[in-house]
């Protein structure tokens, strides 16, 4: 179990992290929506524990970020906002559960176990192009039935293109989808990942549309 905690209350975050680690669960902690997006791009988590009332960008933006990328990682919202309208808003955006502060640690653990059990039973369509298949539920990529290990960035890039198969995706759009809006992205980083994916998956999966971007498959003549 590898969790991500997004919480700006340092004392509460420390208590949650200490409790999870005592039970043998790995947990990463960040204190802002921007840091959460970066962590979600770089790592695969079993579940996200998310405070809504973050400084700057709301925690709701983190949920939207996940769901717009077809990332089904379970999200439990931890918030002091107990109003029914707030709970409905969080669930409508894509949260899986809601826990109002203050809460008992045992209840939090039980809810984590519940959402992860449910997530294991979700049916998510496998994305395919030729002999390449990407399963978003397991984040597993295969070629002709054989597993192909990809880095987190390579996986995000391939996912973005396969989700938009047949459409040209600009480099700027791919940078946003792969990096989550980071400003320190190298100018040729997408081209590097495309090269690596072609080496691992073959030349027919990704087409360069010069002056426009990239697309899954071949451009029509």
Write the layout of secondary structure elements.
Layout: E1 2-6, H1 10-22, E2 26-30, H2 33-42, E3 47-51, H3 59-68, E4 75-79, H4 84-93, E5 97-100, H5 105-120, E6 127-129, E7 132-135, E8 140-143, E9 146-147, H6 152-163, H7 171-179, H8 189-201, E10 206-209, E11 213-216
Parallel strand pairs: 1-2, 1-3, 3-4, 4-5
Antiparallel strand pairs: 6-7, 7-8, 8-9, 10-11
Helix pairs in contact: 2-3, 6-7, 6-8
Care to describe what's here?
The chain has 221 residues and is of the alpha/beta class. It contains eight helices and eleven strands. A five-stranded parallel β-sheet has the order 2-1-3-4-5, sandwiched between helices. A four-stranded antiparallel β-sheet has the order 6-7-8-9, covered by helices on one side. Strands 10-11 form a two-stranded antiparallel ribbon. The relative contact order is 0.11.
> Helical element count?
8
Biggest sheet, strands in spatial order? Answer: 2-1-3-4-5
Low-confidence stretches: none
Beta-sheet strand percentage? 15-25%
Amino-to-carboxy terminus distance: 48 Å
The SSE order reads EHEHEHEHEHEEEEHHHEE
Helix content: 40-55%
Q: What do the pLDDT scores average to? A: 85
The SS-based structural class is alpha/beta
Report the biggest beta sheet as strand number plus sense, adding barrel if it closes.
5 strands, parallel
Give the overall form.
elongated
Rg over CA atoms, rounded to whole Å, is 19 Å
